[in-house]
Amino acid sequence: MNHLTESQLSHLKTSLLERRETLQQHFTQDNESEGLLGDSLRMSTGELSSVDNHPGDVGTETFERSRDLAINDKLAQELEEIEAALQRMDEGTYGICIASKEEIPYERLEAIPYTAYTVEHTPARDLSDARPAEEDVMTTPPRGAGENRQEKSGRFDDAGAWESVEDYGSASSPVTSGSGDDEEGEL
């Protein structure tokens, strides 16, 4: 820890303790709330049955619940890393990369106080390249599908709607007619 001054170390420890407190409060509040993420979907939504709900509503609830669980997992991992960083402070190894044994620059520690790695030795995150199973059986659309669809369908396309109705005028312009046979007051 010789590369960190006492004031830098104190500042970093304060940052870690504040973030730990925030995360602990998050998990305490989650456990005290009525709609716990550990409950079943039925219990967390307060619905007696999902039969009378639109499938989109159930899908939205499932998505929201999955998102909240993923956020909680990420925050729990951050809390573990903070605890490990505080332990490294107590042991005197804080600020030293656990992979290369190099000093971690203060600027990096200030940005991510719980990091245990230099930028060069940070483990790669395992991002899955897996694609949905449906893509294995999907075929590409026929050539030209959708090209000039509106133009050839003979249906009204709202992209040219203003050009079609501008001849009739607007609330702030006088009515004009191509025939000139209209009597005043008739529309």
UniProtKB/TrEMBL annotation:
Biased composition (Polar residues): 170-179
Record's keyword annotation contains Metal-binding: yes
GO MF: zinc ion binding
Residue stretches making up the Zinc finger DksA/TraR C4-type domain: 92-120
Basic and acidic residues biased stretches: 123-134, 146-158
UniProt-listed Gene3D superfamilies: DksA, coiled-coil domain (1.20.120.910)
Keyword Mitochondrion: no
Zinc finger residue extent: dksA C4-type: 97-121
Disordered as annotated region, ranges: 123-187
Keywords: Metal-binding, Zinc, Zinc-finger
InterPro entries, alphabetized: DnaK_N, YteA, Znf_DskA_TraR
Cited PROSITE patterns: ZF_DKSA_2 (PS51128)
Protein name: Zinc finger DksA/TraR C4-type domain-containing protein
Organism: Paenibacillus albidus
